[in-house]
Design brief:
CATH topology of the largest domain: Rossmann fold
Largest sheet: 6 strands, parallel
Number of helices: 13
Number of strands: 12
CATH class of the largest domain: Alpha Beta
Helix content: 40-55%
Order of helices and strands: HEHEHEHEHEHEHEHEHEEHEEHHH
Radius of gyration: 21 Å
Strand order of the largest sheet: 9-8-7-10-11-12
Shape: globular
CATH superfamily of the largest domain: Glycogen Phosphorylase B
CATH architecture of the largest domain: 3-Layer(aba) Sandwich
Number of domains: 2
Amino acid sequence: MHSTKYGGLEHYFSYMAKKAAENGWLSIYQYKSNPDSSKYINDLKKIGSKVVTLDMSGGRFKTACDIIKLLILTRPKLIMLHFQGGNDHLPMVLPFLAKILGITRVYRMIHMDYMPILSHRQKEIFKMYTKIIGVSKAATKSFLSSGYSGGNCCTHYLGVMGNRNKSAMLRKQFRSYFKIPSSSIVLGTLVFDSHIKGVDLLLEAFKEVCDKNNNIHLLIIGINPEESKLPELAKNIGVEKNIHWAGIQDDGWKLLNIVDVYIQPSRREAIGLAIMEAIALELPVVAYNVGGIPEIVDDMVTGILVEPENPSALAKAIVKLIENPDLMKEFGKKGRAKYISSFDGVSSVKNLLDILEIQ
């Protein structure tokens, strides 16, 4: 895994490390390369946590050697695997080597809403994990549908950290920065540059929305326009003038203060911290009905869910909302209430530490 910003997941890791430290635990985070955010690294250092960089890509033998090297270097009492970085050998080799080295507590967090059918050998290895934790019911269901029935699975929602309240000051400041009139409607999304995130679908939908209302702007947070092919796509579609590329930002959620409707166009999504950040700011949501998104967005209660990979359906839902300000406000308030009841980060970290038996 490579960390490009101090985003929702990094804040979650930082707070978790802080609470673990209060219970006498040192947290060590392994990344493929050094995280890009110096603030994230400094916050971990203040807590006493460490970042270890080790590229664990490669074949089975190299993966095994890398794991042994990492475990000997860090001497952990507990291991949690979040992302395998495209290395299918990692989750298979890790619990076996941990057991050999006397590490009895090994956890796997499932951040995917799809899982291929497991072989008998893979099923037996997954039984070696202390717990397999899905980040949503969809993620857990997907894992179980792979043929696994080990009995060590559970679901745990991540959450959003910090004081998340909408700010009139930030709304005015950022609208001025992006030169967006106060009368304009702003759509927003907080993503990274991946086909799975469906920004190409959003651009197509945005064209249809602009054809009906040219006083609409789109803010895209989390994509570097200098490196991405998406700005060229926007130009080819003919919507580049009304799009604002905010780039990759620490605490990108703050920019959502200028947004009126949050859009999540993902083709797949186990759970969406960005959606949690949006509903915390009382934003109504329009999203594709995939993965764990319906566990955050209640259709026609806190937002509108539409058929996956259908730009026209996405556009229709967006237009429905922006033509009904009262509905936008109603969805936003109910979304905020759901954030408080289900996706508060402090409660989430406490519950996860209980699952890990860090007390």
